[in-house]
């Protein structure tokens, strides 16, 4: 069954997101390599590990990885090992996890992430001031999802504010009609400054009922136990398949017949690795930011930036069909996202993990 489109998308948000985009070139996406079975990822079992690291972490490679010193490379390798410590990992999992570690802290990604979060917070404030019905609680099907004004979806006094003060209600329509755009902008800037940014929470390894939702996400913790999704991120290595189909089903995971409000939305905090779980029904998304709340990062040979408006390609059609949504060939979907290609020493990184895998103990 085809899902209905979201409520209106604000042009200003699209323009703000496009301001982060430098060109419209693509990175070729190759067929995924054949992955061998899993092994326990324990680097201290690998002979001549230091020699291997020095061979891979050349000056050129470190520059591509946004690193200045070999110690940073070693730290990323250790973090990869820590994240996979409880798993039997394939080479592909090792390569992919290393990209998530390195890519998430890359200056380019951090700058774009911060910019998109700012864009989406601003859109949140404008939507709240205007009383727009664009906030939707996850944990139900597309057909049953209901877009509401912020205070109805999240509850009164839900916006986290510095010092715990009241954020204030939406503006009445007759008052809005009397405001000039400059006056409305001034009110929005003031209220934007009231938001407690300490409640912006980064997450990794985000799952719904044990199934992957996103590699990373950034959420705004609201004052009454609810959360607003500000940004989701997906990471793909060269040869790991298309990133478009992966991003295209983000909202399908939030809104389908298999989930309900009490479904588990689980994640780890990036710095500590500590796990946490919240109710899926307490997660809100805003249709006003549907052009700027998804980020896709892929390793490649050169830097690339593009705002992608997804259509019904083979991969998108197949992935959406798994979640009960029918999309026709070349049909426009509701999904768009900012694609970032990172210059990345993919061949040497994969060769390193092939060697580590070969020296690792069998499961």
Structure description:
By secondary structure, the chain is an alpha+beta fold. The protein contains 13 helices and 13 strands. Strands 3, 4, 5, 6, 7, 8, 9, 10, 11, 12 and 13 form an eleven-stranded mixed β-sheet that branches. Strands 1-2 form a two-stranded antiparallel sheet. α2 runs antiparallel to α13. It is globular, with a radius of gyration of 22 Å. It comes from Paradevosia shaoguanensis.
Distance between the termini: 43 Å
Low-confidence parts, pLDDT < 50 over ≥5 residues?
1-11, 16-34
Specify the helix fraction band: 25-40%
Structural class, please? alpha+beta
Query: What is the total tally of β strands?
Result: 13
Q: Strand-and-helix sequence, N→C?
A: HEHHHEHHEEHHHEEEHHEEEEEHEH
Number of helices: 13
Tell me about the biggest sheet? 11 strands, mixed
Mean pLDDT: 88
Strand content range: 15-25%
Radius of gyration: 22 Å
Shape: globular
């Amino acid at each position: 069954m085809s899902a209905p489109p979201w409520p209106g998308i604000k042009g200003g948000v699209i323009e703000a997101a496009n301001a982060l985009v430098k060109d419209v070139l693509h990175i070729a996406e190759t067929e995924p390599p054949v992955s061998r079975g899993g092994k326990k990822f324990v680097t201290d079992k690998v002979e001549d590990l230091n020699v291997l690291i020095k061979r891979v972490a050349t000056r050129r490679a470190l520059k591509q990885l946004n690193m200045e010193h070999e110690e940073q490379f070693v730290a990323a390798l250790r973090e990869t090992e820590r994240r996979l410590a409880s798993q039997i990992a394939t080479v592909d999992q090792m390569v992919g996890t290393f990209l998530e570690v390195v890519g998430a802290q890359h200056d380019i990604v951090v700058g774009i992430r911060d910019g998109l979060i700012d864009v989406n917070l601003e859109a949140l404030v404008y939507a709240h001031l205007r009383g727009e019905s664009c906030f939707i609680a996850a944990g139900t099907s597309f057909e049953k999802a209901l877009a509401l004004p912020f205070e109805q979806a999240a509850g009164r006094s839900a916006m986290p504010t510095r010092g715990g003060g009241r954020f204030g209600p939406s503006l009445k329509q007759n008052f809005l009609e009397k405001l000039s755009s400059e006056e409305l902008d001034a009110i929005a800037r003031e209220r934007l400054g009231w938001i407690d940014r300490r409640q912006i929470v980064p997450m990794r390894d985000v799952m719904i009922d044990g199934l992957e939702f996103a590699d990373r996400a950034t959420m705004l913790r609201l004052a009454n136990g609810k959360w607003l999704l500000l940004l989701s991120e997906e990471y793909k290595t060269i040869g790991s398949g298309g990133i478009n189909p992966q991003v295209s089903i983000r909202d399908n995971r939030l809104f389908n017949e298999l989930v309900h409000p009490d479904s588990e939305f689980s994640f780890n905090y990036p710095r500590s690795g500590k796990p946490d779980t919240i109710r899926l029904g307490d997660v809100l998304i805003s249709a006003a930011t549907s052009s700027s709340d998804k980020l896709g990062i892929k390793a490649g040979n050169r830097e690339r930036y593009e705002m992608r408006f997804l259509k019904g390609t083979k991969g998108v059609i197949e992935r959406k069909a798994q979640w009960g949504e029918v999309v026709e060939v070349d049909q426009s979907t509701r999904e768009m996202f900012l694609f970032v290609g990172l210059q990345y020493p993919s061949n040497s990184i994969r060769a390193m993990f092939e060697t580590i895998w070969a020296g690792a103990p069998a499961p």
